[in-house]
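Worked example 3. Consider a protein that binds phosphoric acid mono(formamide)ester.
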Amino acid sequence: MTWNRKHLLDIESLAAEEITTVLDTARAFKAVGERAIKKVPALRGKTVVNLFIEPSTRTRISFELAALRLTADVINFTAEASSLKKGETLKDTARNLEALNADIIIIRHSAAGAPHFLSRFLNASVINAGDGAHEHPTQALLDTFTIRERRGKIAGLNVTILGDILYSRVARSNIWALTKLGANVTLCGPSTLVPRVFEQMGCRVTYDVDEAIADADIINLLRIQHERQRRTMFPSLHEYTSLFGLSKERLGRTKSEVLIMHPGPINRGVEIDSEIADSRRSVILEQVTNGLAVRMAVLFLVNGGKGPQEIAA
Ligand code: CP
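Given these inputs, the predicted complex is written out as structure tokens:
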């Protein structure tokens, strides 16, 4: 299937074939990244703006590097040093960036729907880099890319997402991507953070962590999203770690080839034992590496690219 979208706003609205097109295009760009000369001219003369109104390490830097690898000009907008601080609206800020010839605006914002809002009045392409607790599409794409690269498929795999699901945009985007591609998704965590309403997205919900991870091919751990919680959702971090943290003892009761994933930032000793984070089963840093190829693919596709067939071998 060829890509035909100007924006990447969410995973929910994508067909499975569109997700596969992004993953196949990312695979071609990963091969480009293994060459001596890692740059291609696909976005030469284009301007990409990183409009991050919430903190980020991985997403912002990998989008910046992806745009540079595609030979685009890149502007990194710093919210703290901007006229947002003087009361300028998001709409006026985005329109001013477009007046400076921004072709692609990558937005991270605490408000769910902010990227969709921009896409309604901008001529530029809009990419969602995380909107509130709603979606984080490129994280789900790099997660599925990593799973497919390691396991050779997505369909039929048992993927357990463990932690704060309620406030997690990573969880929502992963659930959409994985279920569309045929994985069996199990959600686990404290009942206050994993409401049964998620079953309507095609997932299994359980509050028994040992049962949730016993048959998992992949365990994707999520941190507690303190910045989005408006009230206390469990008694203490210590209790959370003892009931739901991935300890060496718990890991010993999983499949020997299980892969451990985490979108980062990780809280060592809370949702994940520090040694597990650095162990051979962890693909946490591979996820970061793959994020570069996936974000190159997304920038290429929203700029009018059709698919992997257009990237020279
Ligand atoms: N995974 C992720 O979105 O990390 P950052 O917040 O550092 O971008």
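Take a moment to read the result before moving on. The chain has eleven helices and nine strands. The pocket of phosphoric acid mono(formamide)ester is lined by residues 56-59, 130, 136, 139, 263-265 (CB under 6 Å).
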